[in-house]
Design goal:
It contains six helices and two strands; from the N terminus they run H-H-H-E-E-H-H-H. It is mainly alpha-helical and 117 residues long. The chain has one domain (3-113). The two termini are 23 Å apart.
Length: 117
């Protein structure tokens, strides 16, 4: 599935379609697709699998073998960052952000949230 289709699917489920939420969705997808396209660089770091379309919002795309396009390998800091950005557009995602931020070796979440990746 291409990035524009994924963006449209996410936009449909986004509770707030204000400029800030739209900006966050675009930023989120930009990071995800950067790592999807640069998979070779990521293999050298400790990574975690991330569902581009979150399982809690899109259970129909949860299966990795049927939807391999929905998985991206992310370094831990980038994984925390995308969950933070996603939570800003989808308030129900805050729980997953707080769960995953506990795995990050950097305790300063504000630093990660402001990171440029």
């Amino acid at each position: 599935m291409d990035s524009e289709t994924i963006y449209q699917l996410m936009l449909e489920k986004c509770p707030n379609k204000d400029n800030k939420s739209i900006h966050n969705l675009k930023r989120y997808l930009k990071i995800c697709f950067y790592y999807k396209q640069n998979d070779q660089k990521v293999n050298e770091e400790i990574c975690e699998n991330h569902h581009i379309l979150p399982r809690s919002l899109f259970p129909e795309f949860e299966n990795q073998s049927k939807n391999p396009w929905n998985i991206v390998k992310l370094p831990i800091k980038a994984h925390v960052l995308v969950h933070y950005i996603l939570s800003k557009s989808f308030s129900q995602m805050w729980n997953s952000f707080f769960l995953i931020s506990g795995r990050c070796p950097h305790k300063n979440i504000r630093m990660i949230a402001n990171a440029r990746i």
